[in-house]
Amino acid sequence: MSTEQSLSRLRAALDEVGVDYDEGTREGELVVTLPGERKLRTVCSLVVGADAVSVQAFVIRNPDENHTEFYRFLLRRNLRMPGTAYAIDAEGDVYLSGRLPVEAIDTPTIDRLLGTVLTACDEPFNELLVIGFLTSMRTEWRWRVSRGESTANLEAFRHLLEGTGDESGAS
């Protein structure tokens, strides 16, 4: 099967799954944006090659602290993720990466793949923030509270952040 045929099959599967996608900047690339609950959105790149479709999605930036615990958490999650795994780039930013044979491109497989990507990026997001960025979050909380700024984007972490500064109750 040619790369163009595989790309057409992928487009048809994405259409059938009902997700929006755009053409990427690389040859054979389609970019899907998946809505999340903890992480607002996950951008997923699907690149069709001669033999495989590669999938990659940004998960979270390099943690500020607790690197060992942070990466251990991700490695343990790798054990239970079908067809994908967490990886880091040269800067330590975390991505989800995987490959799928082009012969496997069909609607149910693409639906499962995107579900796996979304689960792997969204489900652990808050826990990763707490492990790798709690000090920064506390600083942000104190700054926002001291200035009467909204703390809405930190609300999920209120139980960890209250008591770390002026508690005027800004939201």
Notable characteristics:
171 residues; alpha+beta; elongated
Distance linking N and C termini: 55 Å
- Count of beta strands: 6
Evaluate the radius of gyration. 19 Å
Portion of residues in beta strands equals: 15-25%
- Sheet having the most strands: 6 strands, antiparallel
Give the strand order of the largest sheet, numbering strands 1, 2, ... along the chain: 1-2-3-4-6-5
Helix content: 40-55%
Question: Can you describe what's shown?
Answer:
- 25% of the residues are buried.
- This protein is 40% helix and 23% strand.
- Strand 5 (84-88) and strand 6 (94-101) form a beta hairpin.
- The model is unreliable at 166-171 (pLDDT under 50).
- Strands 1-2-3-4-6-5 form a six-stranded antiparallel sheet.
- It is elongated and about 60 Å long.
- By secondary structure, the protein is an alpha+beta fold.
Task: Give a summary of the structure in a few sentences.
By secondary structure, the chain is an alpha+beta fold.
Map the helices and strands.
Elements: H1 3-17, E1 21-23, E2 29-35, E3 41-48, E4 52-60, H2 67-78, E5 84-88, E6 94-101, H3 107-122, H4 125-146, H5 158-161
Antiparallel strand pairs: 1-2, 2-3, 3-4, 4-6, 5-6
Helix pairs in contact: 1-3
